[in-house]
Give the backbone structure.
Amino acid sequence: MAEKVTIATVARHARVSRQTVSNVLNSPHIVRQETRQRVEDAINALGYRANQAARQMRTGRSRLIAARIDPTRDGINGSVLDRFLHGLTETADAAGYRVLLYTATDDDREIATYGDLLGTYELDAFVLVGTKHGDPRTEWLADRDVPFVTFGRPWDALDAHPWVDVDGAAGTAQATRRLLDAGHRRIAFIGWPVGSGVGDDRRAGWRDALRAAGVDPTGLHRETEDGIAEGERLMHDLLATVAPSAVVCASDSLALGALQAIRGVDPPVSVIGFDDTPVAAAVGLTSVSQPLGEAAARCVDLLTGVLDGDHETPTPVLLQPSLALRHTA
Amino acid sequence: MAEKVTIATVARHARVSRQTVSNVLNSPHIVRQETRQRVEDAINALGYRANQAARQMRTGRSRLIAARIDPTRDGINGSVLDRFLHGLTETADAAGYRVLLYTATDDDREIATYGDLLGTYELDAFVLVGTKHGDPRTEWLADRDVPFVTFGRPWDALDAHPWVDVDGAAGTAQATRRLLDAGHRRIAFIGWPVGSGVGDDRRAGWRDALRAAGVDPTGLHRETEDGIAEGERLMHDLLATVAPSAVVCASDSLALGALQAIRGVDPPVSVIGFDDTPVAAAVGLTSVSQPLGEAAARCVDLLTGVLDGDHETPTPVLLQPSLALRHTA
DNA sequence: TCCAGAAACTTGAACGTTCCAATCCTGCCT
DNA sequence: AGGCAGGATTGGAACGTTCAAGTTTCTGGA
């Protein structure tokens, strides 16, 4: 039975003290080159790995980051979270952190979970995906000086915390310009009800791009809750009223509905969705693609910046989306 | 500045020793009712939470379970993992465990990650999703007596470890019987190449259901790699050769391809997919639905069984899928 | 009333690491 | 040669918990 390899084992093997081994690990520069080499050899020979629990007891840092996994909402847009989490895990790993999952059914429970995770596991930071107007979660975390980032900018201008987001307006603007370039003039927009930050942002991109091209957007947009059926309904409405030759949608779900509504219409109506979900790839829907891996990486960057010393408040990051061109536009 | 609340704080407050507090937490039955009440009151009053790192140092148990998050493969079937992970997080939480994510690009790296996670974080167990023929990962874990479960039965009969799986054959059989009941006789099958355990299993369910109904399945099946384009290609082939009136597919991707191939065919060909992905729900595809939440829950059950005492090898679990009826069949 | 035995509770010690303060070198200056 | 500064290294203590082995308190039977 192999003895457990601790820092003491390494120390004995390299004929130095425990503290010197610890120094090789944490502040290599203060150890003489020759000694350091000897210790590193011992570490490799013995396959030593620093015990995180013991380390945590002294330092109070767990090198753990919490991220929430949702109960897959309507589904289509769910895979966004999936890809984001993967990116998070990958980048965090490279930075020496690990990702811990949690779920919650409402804000109160989520906050209770924060308390539990912080108290029991001493989590270092939280990553929140999507925040809403007057979010109690960010407030709770900020009040307690718990490091966190949000993927999604804060829609209340009130409190400024580190965030990473994708420029949705730039995405819909790009989509709209592509349609304009293709000769379209009557370009409609199907989006979410006014008041949702993300929805307003995406609509603004479409509107501004039209205006910049000298096209009046009045009457060309419709709003609804997300969903395929809703997208189909509103597209029928648009066809019957303003007869657009193209449409930009705030989500792939809406776009998919629109696609069903225009089946058989001639000349074909161009459709562009948002999020570049697997479904879009599957049905050949052109869609605005968010750089999710990049977004996750920047989240980790911001957090490690805060955690590993940098005392300055980190700068928010706004990433540019791209257009995944397929055959619907 | 509030002092950190430790077991000693609680002990002082309840006028008992540290150990008694510890006993209230871990073996309440050996503490006198009145004392226990006093301690519990103190715990609540102070908002005490046991520090996991310290606990781990003594017990060697981290109450952490590792699960892998994949770089979202083709996409459509990706959301299966998503839902499974959510279920895992939820059930693990209820059992007092937390889920830690990791990624890896190949088996060697994955095994290296196991070593790291075990050495550094002292993980309690692993959950593997999908194992292949002669999987080096299960072997490595078994050799070191690391507790683990696989979601997906072991296809090598060799070593028996705890597993949870969904009875794919039962799913395709159920789908096939539904089509038979609807009067279909020429029911085709589009699946994966022979040799993939999961694929063979799903094909067997279709074949056996046909035979049981006195229908000869010969010539009615096609095999290919997963993917929409492939599904479309093979469906065209089937239409041109055996002209089936219905088809059962091994995945929603294949089924989606089949749907595209039959567009306009009259009378309409019935299609049933597998996995009940968001895409299936979106396009109204009838599909075999795996009880993913249940599967995750049973994985946790098996693990906690092994971890919390039960010395008997736990029984594998085979769950029954159901049919999500929509309008393609 | 006393005592044995069980139940209830307490007290050091230990888990593996890092912090802190102290000691030991080494080379340089006088 | 002696003293000294500064780098390199060391040993004790502490983080918060549970284990193991104690000590005290209670219970009931003679």
